[in-house]
Design a protein that fits this description.
The chain has helices at about 10-15, 20-30, 45-50, 50-60. The protein has about 60 residues and is an all-alpha fold.
Length: about 60
């Protein structure tokens, strides 16, 4: 197989830290009233508690 490979810049971009702003943008664009997974939290939940959740999510993502 001749599969495409990522170059150094693409690898660096994928491995960079996630920012507060990126998390905020994702939460803002979630479809309202839809469950996000097995935890049952809706987009409305994330949007309502966005300020509290951003710092928690940032810590989780940066420790991965």
């Amino acid at each position: 197989y001749n599969l495409p490979r990522l170059n150094h810049d693409e690898i660096h971009h994928l491995n960079r830290l996630i920012t507060n702003n990126e998390i905020e943008v994702v939460i803002k664009h979630l479809s309202a009233k839809k469950s996000l997974g097995p935890n049952g939290f809706t987009a409305e939940f994330y949007q309502t508690f966005k300020k509290e959740l951003i710092s928690i999510l940032l810590k989780i993502f940066q420790n991965q």
